[in-house]
Write a structure and sequence with these properties.
The protein has about 325 residues and is α/β, with parallel strands linked by helices. It contains nine helices and nine strands.
């Protein structure tokens, strides 16, 4: 990781040589900082002085991992955490070659369990903003700084990268049956959760640490429906959820679940929607939704102060 050099601590013409440091489980390239720097020796905190972590829940991602990492802007990202869910290919070896020290599950625990490990590690590292990116290169890692900024500056608590918003997903390669099922499930979820999101099924999402640490995510499924359960929890907590339009790639080396798992996932989404609706009205008790959102809302970050841009120059004075 390369960090920005402050003019107050180093002459403009002198750029300190990078050093290698181990942060938790991730081996990163970090700048040498002067003694007493309040940011500490391992982080640049470029975006509004917030520490940004990217987490990669990996499974058989050998073919796409290098391209994904190449598009993660290490000038603004403080940590990259990769968790391997017992891949059968060389994902772990490649990750180490690329400078990471992956966390490895001894057995395949599931996509949801992988995310739980990712988020726990990022929170332990002291991240303020956690961005989850699928390492299958289907979602653009170039959007990470934009999504992180939306949270780092206090405007949102959670941000989703949408494959639907302001673009023709089918023309970009999304199979038509996936598009139809996406639209149907999203329609149902928006009604059940009283939201207006363009989609709930993206593999590119960001959280504030305040929100993520407040949600009882360990109660969620270890399977794919984890994605929808954590959104339901965020809605229940009163989180501010934003979206950005995300170009996606549908290639042979991008991961995808088979038809049987897709049907199972769809039923899980409908079940989550029903859970939320019934739990909200006191007609069903759901353990993963059983927490006090009023208390959690007080812990979410408020928008920070906006600097005065200075006096404007009128057209007449030019």
């Amino acid at each position: 990781m390369a960090g920005a050099v402050s003019p107050a601590t180093s002459p403009p013409s002198v750029i300190p040589a990078p050093a290698i440091a181990v942060i938790g489980r991730s081996r990163l390239r970090v700048p040498k900082q002067p003694p007493g720097d309040p940011r500490g020796p391992y982080t640049a905190c470029v975006i509004n002085s917030r520490r940004i972590s990217v987490v990669l829940p990996a499974y058989n991602a050998e073919a796409t991992l290098s391209r994904t990492l190449a598009e993660i802007d290490r000038d603004v990202i403080d940590e990259v955490v990769l968790v391997d869910d017992a891949s059968s290919d060389q994902t772990v070896s490649l990750a180490r070659e690329l400078g990471l020290e992956p966390i490895c599950h001894e057995s395949n625990k599931g996509y949801g369990a992988n995310q739980k490990t990712c988020y726990r590690q990022a929170l332990e590292l002291g991240a303020d903003v956690i961005v989850m990116v699928h390492p299958d290169y289907q979602y653009s890692p170039l959007l990470v700084p934009a999504m992180a900024s939306m949270i780092a500056y206090g405007e949102y608590d959670m941000v989703l990268g949408s494959r639907i918003l302001a673009q023709n997903s089918v023309a970009r390669g999304m199979p038509r049956y996936k598009y139809i099922s996406n639209r149907f499930l999203t329609f149902v979820e928006n009604i059940a959760l009283s939201q207006k999101l363009s989609e709930y099924h993206t593999g590119l999402r960001a959280f504030s640490s305040a929100l993520l640490s407040s949600l009882p995510m360990e109660r969620n499924s270890d399977d794919f429906v984890f994605d929808n359960q954590i959104i339901a929890q965020a809605v229940a907590a009163g989180a501010r959820i934003g979206e950005v339009s995300c170009p996606t790639r549908y290639a042979a080396d991008s991961s995808s679940i088979n038809l049987r798992r897709s049907i199972r996932y769809g039923l899980g989404v409908l079940h989550t929607s029903l859970d939320y609706r019934l739990h909200r009205h006191g007609l069903r008790h759901c353990g993963y939704l059983d927490f006090k959102p009023g208390q959690l809302r007080d812990r979410l970050p408020e928008p920070g102060p906006v600097e005065d841009p200075g006096p404007r120059v009128s057209e007449q004075s030019r």
